[in-house]
Design brief:
Layout lengths: L6 H52 L4 H7 L7 E7 L4 E3 L3 H9 L2 E3 L2 E7 L2 E10 L2 E8 L1 H49 L14 H52 L6 H28 L7 E4 H16 L3 E5 L4 E4 L1 H18 L5 E7 L2 E7 L22 H4 L8 H11 L3 E6 L5 E8 L2
Parallel strand pairs: 8-10
Antiparallel strand pairs: 1-2, 1-6, 3-4, 4-5, 5-6, 7-9, 10-11, 11-13, 12-13
Helix pairs in contact: 1-4, 5-6, 7-8, 8-10
Bound molecules: adenosine-5'-diphosphate.
């Protein structure tokens, strides 16, 4: 099996990727805001200086005086005044700074910023009267603060990322450990016993473990039922086979001295072999019920009428029919025949006298009913008769040929078509079987 990534590794990687992306975006925003803030601050300062000079100019400026007495608020500020007559004045040490800045590089999008090697300057010029006034503000200190803040911020982000990743790794590890434990337990579970340990939390794992245990329990019950069925079926088959072998022995041992045993034993062998034949046929039918081939739109009304007529002929019994015409149903024809035959054969077997009535109607469902006036079914048996191989009081039924599979076939077929079967008492006596099929 290819080595799969563990949940904690996968989640940690995803978290780190996503978190790093968010941090990157936040830092970009931070850089943008800081640059705007610094630029604003310096250009405010520049505006203030130009305003002061302009106000002085209107009151008759003496440029050389102004530059000489220019109060340097900050060591990083330099002023240059160029007059139209060619005279140029510099504030203290400003000539050198202007010389350096003239060789610097401008910064894209920030028109007044100039970079000279590692130094950062703000440069602006303005015409005031007949003078061209230029100003340089050294912005290194303020940009340094911003860069340092950014660095601290980046460092904190990296620490946050590492701590966050470690926490996620640990937390997911704790949950996935429960899943790993579960899968280890699963590998060791015996198909007949043992359950998964159900953790209290997280809720999802609790639910999966509980659901799995419920399913396990159902599967085990189903397997148990299957085993029981196979053992019952083999028992049912073994009994007539043993009887047949007994009579064969009898014939072998006694037929010469008592030839009268031959017809007796042959009749018995015939009866028992028919029982085996019926049982094996029914077992095969039961095994094939799930098969959903050959579905077609069947004229249910005609089919019921035909089946009743056939059984009437073969049994010689009168069967009353009440069929609403043209009821159609999508079904495999043989399935529908099997249902009708099994119910009617039971009615004929368990109601040797009295009226048998078959009716078919359609309202919100298709409704098939077989009613007899026979021996009836006690309330406590009404559920059980649909179980495989179940026969009410075998001694009562021993005279009547049967295997206990007929009704389980009917039930399985009805369920296959999403229908329902109910059994009730007929009046004054007997049984009514009612089948409901959904209208299609
Ligand atoms: P069987 O082969 O024994 O008839 P079924 O599965 O068809 O098996 O029926 C199960 C049991 O239900 C029967 O053994 C019988 O005791 C009872 N039963 C079925 N149909 C009727 C009926 N119409 N009247 C009374 N009892 C019935």
């Amino acid at each position: 099996m290819k080595n799969k990534q563990t949940a904690k590794r996968q989640l940690t990687m995803r978290f780190m990727g996503l978190f790093a992306l968010i941090l990157l975006l936040m830092n970009l925003i931070f850089v943008g805001i800081s640059v705007a803030f610094v630029y604003d601050y310096v250009s405010d300062r520049s505006e203030h200086i130009f305003d002061t000079i302009e106000n002085g100019e209107t009151s008759g400026q003496n440029w050389s005086n102004l530059v000489n007495n220019y109060v340097i608020q900050d060591e990083g500020e330099a002023l240059q005044v160029r007059l139209s007559n060619g005279e140029t004045y510099y504030s203290e040490d400003a000539a050198e700074t202007f010389n350096d800045v003239s060789e610097g590089k401008t910064v894209p999008f920030l028109e007044h910023f100039v970079l000279v090697d590692d130094d950062r300057y703000y440069y602006e010029e303005k015409e005031i009267g007949d003078a061209e006034v230029s100003l340089i503000i050294d912005s290194e200190a303020i940009t340094d603060i911003t860069i340092n803040l950014l660095m601290v911020n980046l460092l904190l982000n990296v620490v946050g990322l590492i701590v966050g990743a470690a926490l996620i790794y640990w937390m997911v590890g704790r949950w996935s450990q429960k899943l790993s434990q579960m899968s280890a337990e699963l590998n060791q579970l015996d198909e007949t016993q043992g359950y998964l340990t159900v953790p209290e939390d997280p809720q999802e794992i609790y639910q999966v473990a509980t659901a799995f245990n419920t399913l396990l329990e159902k599967q085990r019950q189903a397997i148990e039922r299957e085993k029981q069925f196979v053992s019952d079926a083999s028992h049912e088959l073994r009994t007539p086979i043993a009887a047949i072998r007994g009579h064969m022995n009898l014939i072998q041992r006694r037929s010469e001295t008592h030839p009268e045993v031959i017809p007796q034993s042959l009749a018995f062998i015939d009866k028992e072999s028919k029982r085996i034949e019926l049982l094996s046929e029914q077992l095969l039918t039961l095994g094939r019920v799930e098969n959903k081939n050959n579905l077609e739109m069947i004229d249910f009304s005609s089919l019921v009428t035909q089946e009743v007529k056939d059984l009437q002929l073969s049994s010689g019994r009168e069967i009353a029919l009440q069929v609403e015409p043209e009821i159609y149903f999508k079904v495999a024809k043989t399935d529908l025949q099997q249902i009708i035959q099994n119910l009617l054969e039971n009615a004929l077997k368990y109601a040797p006298t009295g009226k048998i009535k078959v009716s078919l109607h359609k309202n919100d469902k298709i409704n098939l009913q077989v009613a007899d006036q026979g021996i009836g079914i006690a309330d406590e048996e009404k559920e059980k008769i649909f179980e495989r191989l179940y026969r009410i009081d075998p001694s009562r039924s021993s005279e009547i040929n049967g295997s206990g599979i007929g009704l389980s076939i009917v039930k399985a077929l009805v369920t296959k078509y999403e229908g329902d079967i109910q059994v009730g008492d007929n009046q004054p006596k007997g049984t009514i079987f009612t089948i409901y099929f959904p209208k299609k």
